[in-house]
């Protein structure tokens, strides 16, 4: 029955997209209703709810307070040092009113760009909402980025103001942020004002007179309610710029528009999570990437739910901190990144079992491929095999603001069957096709390029900031008239979507195309392996072979040669003899973007001796040196042993 209901809703969204999305959008508060639901006159620049006026913060905050929900908790915040803070919807609204007034005092106006470079503290949420409230455009930059990456994003967006903190806590260390901002501002050349939150209490935070302002001083001198009314913003005006993670080269400034994003963020969260009044949603993604926008901030607040943030790493100060938080605050649903799950897997099965996790009803994975072993680990050790606790994998991208395929049903259809390894069914309004490299349509089960037919729904980016030609070239030129996701996968006979990795990461061995996910899932079946990344490298005899980089679970010691043979045997059995492994490299960490995606091009570059390209989004530069060391170590070992 639930699948039938989904089909009915989905087919309506494809048959009559304007009528469907008009009804969905009508559930929100608008100052002025739109004149045109969808303007398709200038493809691929699709505009939704044209002529409508609204403000996302009116829908996130004011609406709930007016409807009597002001006393409900909006945010529970857990700090690195054990401190906690709660803000109700009324309290959060007052914080946003004050800081938005402060921004206006500093001269920020509608359409101006503001860069936010902050740790996961309540003031970061306040900053995002305050920028949106006055009709300005925020560009949130992950607080782990260095000077060059930050300067590039400030300069590209033309930001006149930066909101930051004196520093942040990470794994027991203090990282200075203000000094990074100072250097980046000099390089960017556009910054007129810097607002600084006193977070870690550094004694000698450099403050430039006339340019730099303490956050608390600005807020304290604002009178309650002064200059705090939300700006009436056109639906087609930009809400934020968010730079892509850079796995494919120079980051792009993805632009999301105010009206379409608000409608999508509200609706797709409601459809998947189906939150109730008492739910507590533990959202773990940093606000510096799209999932932090859609699931740590806008999505939960638009739905009036309580969202919980944790400031630090998932294994600090101890490997059970996430599960301790779930137990303490009776979390009902949570968002997890696959990379974090694999990190926690390395500490063993017993850690989550020490905590009472019976409040959990839904665990959602997104960001990259979760993999079979990680899914099973969550189901066995966190969900405890309970039928009323679901573990699901989803698919979304920075360019389309969140989930575009998921096991829909917790809100729309009451529970649709989850298929292990699948990211679920396409969300309403999204028509997925699979094409060969030559553009031929492929049938159920056939693997190829994942593309989406226009018109794209409100979820999708509008353009690339300052470079619309790049938007057309990157997303609409490969297959004319179709949106290229850049992902490789297939759709089964029931319409379930399977994402197997980025097209650029697909490996070719002996003329056969292999998805990294297939090989990596097989490698992860080895009991000592926590995680694996696979790339192809040239081979003088076989053309190309596979190179496997693997991390080990905590407490496992292995003989590298024996592990390599066992991995070869598992892959030969699971994937087939065509998956020829040239070498297995053991490392403590894999090179990742700040969003947790493995940068396979870095692995290939180290193996082939080529340049790795843009590394501004790399989480830990030391991981590259570790990869190099592992490669050189194996070479020396083979040479000493006479291997080849």
Low-confidence stretches: none
- How many beta-strand runs? 33
Oligomer: single chain
CATH fold-level label of the domain at 89-231: Rossmann fold
Instruction: Work out the radius of gyration.
Output: 24 Å
| Average pLDDT figure | 89
Q: Identify the strand order in the major beta sheet.
A: 12-11-8-6-7-14-15-26
- Distance separating the two termini: 59 Å
Rough shape? globular
The biggest sheet, with number of strands, parallel, antiparallel or mixed sense and barrel status, is: 8 strands, mixed
Number of helices: 19
Q: What amount of the residues lies in strands?
A: 15-25%
Compile the SSE list and pairings.
Layout: H1 2-15, H2 17-25, E1 36-39, E2 47-50, E3 53-54, H3 56-66, E4 73-78, E5 84-88, H4 89-105, E6 113-117, H5 122-133, E7 137-140, H6 147-157, E8 161-165, E9 167-170, E10 173-176, H7 178-188, E11 193-197, E12 212-214, H8 215-220, E13 233-234, E14 238-243, E15 253-257, H9 258-273, E16 280-283, H10 290-302, E17 306-310, H11 321-329, E18 333-336, H12 338-345, H13 350-353, E19 362-365, H14 372-382, E20 390-393, E21 395-397, E22 402-406, E23 425-426, E24 432-435, E25 448-452, E26 463-464, H15 468-476, E27 483-491, E28 497-502, E29 507-509, E30 512-514, H16 516-523, E31 529-539, E32 543-552, H17 560-574, E33 581-586, H18 600-608, H19 622-641
Parallel strand pairs: 4-17, 6-7, 6-8, 7-14, 8-11, 11-12, 16-17, 16-18, 18-19, 19-20, 32-33
Antiparallel strand pairs: 1-2, 3-13, 4-5, 9-10, 14-15, 15-26, 21-22, 22-23, 24-25, 25-27, 27-28, 29-30, 31-32
